[in-house]
Amino acid sequence: MLNISQTIANELNVKAAQIDAAVRLLDDGAAVPFIARYRKEMTSGLDDGHLRHLEQRLGYLRELDERKQLVLKNIADQGKLSDSLRQQITKVDNKTELEDLYLPYRPKRRTKGQMAIEAGLQPLADALFNDWQLHPEVVSKDYIDSQKGVDDSKAALEGATYILMERFSEDAVLIQKLRRHLINKGHIESQLVKGKEAQASKYKDYFQHSEKLSKVPSHRALAMLRGRNEGVLQLSLNADPGQELAEPSAQAMIREHLHLNVNNQPAADWINRLVRLTWRVKLSMSLETELLSQMREKAESEAINVFAQNLKDLLMAAPGGAKVTLGIDPGIRTGCKLAIVDATAKLLYTTTIYPHEPQKHWDKSIRTLTNLINQYKIELVAIGNGTGSRETDRLCTEAFAKLDKAPAKLIVSEAGASVYSASEFAANEFPELDVSLRGAVSIARRLQDPLAELVKIEPKAIGVGQYQHDVSQSQLSRTLDAVVEDCVNAVGVDVNSASMPLLNRVAGLSKTMAQNIVAYRDQYGRFDNRKQLKKVSRLGPKAFEQAAGFLRITQGDNPLDASAVHPESYSVVAAMAKDAECQIDQLMTDQQRLKQINASDFVSDLFGLPTVQDIIAELDKPGRDPRPQFKTASFKDGVETIKDLEENMILEGVISNVTNFGAFVDIGVHQDGLVHISALTNKFINDPRDVVKAGDIVKVKVLEVDAPRKRISLTMRLEDDANSNQAHSKKSAPKTKAKPNHKNQTKKQKAPANNMMGNAFAEAFAKAKKP
Quick one: pLDDT at residue 720? Predict the structure, then answer.
């Protein structure tokens, strides 16, 4: 069978021994974050990206191996398994080619070709295929047998045609040739279904659309597939787009593969019809279905990756920190719901104010805000970005003007807040609290710590993906759950304050274990050291090994419990402290002492050099948070609705979503604007994430506003170099001259002007922003 470890090793450009070690750990129940962080010696440093790929591919290749065994057994039971076929099947590395090889031997319903064979027509089919000098009408007369259902020469030739069509359509090599041709040369074409113009208005860009199958981007593929599912578009594959050929290329390939160049032969017409029917009836439809399915799978995979990256950026956004925070869930008619939480996210107070229509208690609301800020010493104010957010932001600005020291204020995304409010967890936490007030609590907490709050919400409900309802929901859930797990474990969790949903995302902990930790904490008080975790019901040695390094205890018995140093490595730190002639707490953060430690002096059979180096790095900054520093964006005063926007207006905003074709920016008008990929920077880029990520604070210029359709076109290509590099992203936007360099861009990606309301823009607003 296929060497799974070597196959994955080749894909990741690592050694097979590393894959073998990781597979053993995964099979033994180890979580990816634990392996990546605490078993580097065993895997020779495979990171979580490697391990996630390995985890996914391992499942696929093992399924492939099982399928091979079944296929070999089925063919052997038929007595048709030759040595060469066994070797072919053994070497196959994907399910598609395996099924190609299995096709002739697959149990199938009784076909016209099989019925023709039963009627004794196979010799006729073989004779005509092998000798083109035969006259079909003449030789077929010898096979007329009314008792077998062959009443005339025409019926005999039809039967022979079915036999050969089925034989050709089960030729694995021919199928693979045609598949490659369609993938490389074929175009996907979409057309409007007649009479569906009204229902299909949002798909007007695809009423007469054609593009190369191998180049179609994921968002366009998913848009066309959605249109087909809604019954307004027809999709097809064209192997010869825009070409006038005497014979379609696919039929020519069939003829060439089977050596059927039969011009001027007596059987030429019959053979030509046979080739034509083999393509049209047997192969074209099956290959079209298969390749459109592959296009969908590829597009779904890209869309899921976009969602996963955006989710990671949101989860790893800068936390406001452990500060008393006021959360405001804005509303117009129903009022603004207020919730105050303390530095540990504990709810202190809730109320509702009515500054807007129809009550218009503006001055009273200002007094309420100022009194609450003074009374509770509020340091942060989080305003939800829903309806009334800008009006509420203005209310806060007026209230803050009356204070000696105003708190920091930020408009935050409400995505998923309503899901949390109505969840079982929220109901258990705040059984007496109105659902709307629970939303204000969530808004406050997500400013304090986005990660800790967003883990309470199903990742799909956060709504930072494109076409998320069109992709495989099981695959989406698996991918997003992995992202959440990686983020939670990268940051670490305070075991004395973490919620059950947050604890549940720690490596090695199940939902029951997380619940038991909270129950133990409620019954016995805070944990003073990591060893106490072993007293928690159902949390056995294996779970403790997996989770302990990610669970932090501040101000406990052992200073190492507040760090990412695993308890199994405490002896190494003790040896370091002894060698440095100091206490462990003195060694921690003492950079001079740490610089004098030679990591190789503490390497042993149990702890390799990577682990020792990680320990020293952790001691330098124990419990360090990998998330960026907290910053706030300032929306422009007086710009509160889309009607307030004007062309060339310079605004500050927050990246709310990144897609393959650009980035959406919240500029405080209740409708995100789109910066097309070509407008993100003056240099050509393939991926918007090279410039921005979700949560970045950026400066943009308004290019065009379509208020009736709620579409805003923006650019980050500002004339001032200083402004064009405002994005706080993984990779800063490259410095460029003030004048855009169009030579560095393709025609497709040239600087957008009035055409920004074109295809990608329309698709983006019609589809990608749907939660």
Answer: 45
**Residue 33, amino acid:** P
- First-last CA distance in the chain: 44
Beta-bridged to residue 350, according to DSSP, are: 339
3-state secondary structure of 243: coil
Residue 136 neighbours by CB under 8 Å, 6+ apart: 128, 157, 266, 267, 270
How many CA atoms are closer than 13 Å to the CA of 751, on its beta-carbon side? 15
Amino acid 558 reads N
- Class of 113-301 per CATH? mainly alpha
Q: Where in the chain is the domain with CATH 1.10.10.650?
A: 4-105
Residue 192 DSSP SS3: strand
pLDDT at 641: 87
How far from the centroid of its chain's Cα atoms is residue 22's Cα? Answer: 24
CB within 8 A of 60, min separation 6: which ones? none
105 neighbors 74 (Cβ within 8 angstroms): yes
Spell out a b/e string for 35-60, using b for 16 or more CB atoms within 10 Å of the CB, else e.
Answer: bbbbbbbbbeebebebbbebbebbee
Question: Of the CATH numbers 2.170.130.10, 2.40.50.140, 3.40.50.300, 3.40.50.720, which one belongs to the domain with range 642-768?
Answer: 2.40.50.140
Residues whose CB falls within 8 Å of the CB of residue 111, separated by 6 or more in sequence, listed in order: 162, 166
Helices vs. strands in the chain: H and E counts, helices first:
32, 15
Question: What CA–CA distances, in Å, run from 614 to 38, 526, 596, 622?
Answer: 9, 28, 15, 11
Nearest to 712 by CA among 699, 721, 702: 702
Question: Are 530 and 567 contacting, i.e. CB atoms less than 8 angstroms apart?
Answer: yes
Q: Which residues belong to CATH 2.40.50.140 in the chain?
A: 642-768
Judged by average pLDDT, the poorest of 509-513, 629-633, 696-700, 730-734 is: 730-734
Residue with tokens 């100022």: 370
Kindly list the strands in the beta sheet with 347-353, ordered across the sheet, starting from the edge strand earlier in the chain.
347-353, 336-341, 325-329, 380-384, 408-412
Q: What is the band of 1 on the pLDDT scale with cuts at 50, 70, 90?
A: low
User: Which H or E element spans position 516?
Assistant: helix 511-524
The CATH number of the structural domain formed by 4-105 is 1.10.10.650
Region(s) of the chain under CATH 1.10.3500.10 = 113-301
Is 0.85 topped by the overall pTM?
no
Residue range 29-67, pLDDT digits in tens: 999 999 999 999 999 999 999 999 999 999 999 999 999
The DSSP string of 669-732 is SSS-EEEEGGGS-SS--S-GGGT--TT-EEEEEEEEEETTTTEEEEE---SSHHHHT----SSP
